[in-house]
Write the structure tokens for this entry.
Amino acid sequence: MRRLLALLLLAGCGPVQLPFVEVPMPFERRPGATARDGLTRPPPARIVVPPSTTLGLPEEDARRFAASLAEALQAQELPVTAADIPRPDYRLLVAGETAAGQVRLTYTLVDAAGAPIGAAGGPRAVPAAAWSRAEDATFRAAAGEAASGIAAMLARADAASRRMEPDQLASRLPTVRMNGVAGAPGDGNRSLDRAIRSALAKEGVLVQEGAAEGEFALSGRVDVTALPRRQQRVEISWIVARADGTELGKVSQLNEVPAGTLDGLWADIALVVAEQAATGVAEVIRRARSGG
């Protein structure tokens, strides 16, 4: 058993010491199928993609794109339709913005009352000339490229909403733009980025996808320092800021490990790190929202 993840939360109303956590042999294990599958679970709700009036397309072409998007999301095993069914649990609204000969698509999830609870941006813009031709191949390509990001956003929205009380949902879930993780050896940057997104959903925080902005921004940093006797000190810092860059708080995690331990796959340890860090990140956001 190793002592891991001494979390120190530095926020507006003073430091809060979070408890040590005992983790058995965290650095040698690889995630099993259960851990991987738990990162994204599609929501059970019915989701409708209505035709958009902001895409610069005739109504019939807008309906065709809605159908293409629904098909791409169905391939992700999501219960999505472009049909006008009564009382859907969610609607996925598509918006298009044209600039410099490119069309940038964004996707916003709204609940039954029309309140936005998540957003995702298309991974890349579509040339305006190709978009205006409204060819099936263009629609299928744009929908297919966006599908995985939308599916991840939907899964996080569902995971977050299932943990929130009705009065909390009414006041809108906080949204965060993830600015990435840097400095980690091995596959740590990628593994930590993926794991923190899922962990934040369990804390009722939605991570935005693609070009979509968030109410807050989060970035991670890993610093590794050599120690005597072939040991390394690993410090992981998570910086929470407002969308305008104003820093709100920092969650720090510290551990000493044998040199080279993290040079390969982080595996299950990324999940453990993210779960503990998400608690502190959510606390910083809660304080910022409450003015504490």
Residues 1-45, 166-170 have pLDDT under 50 and may be disordered.
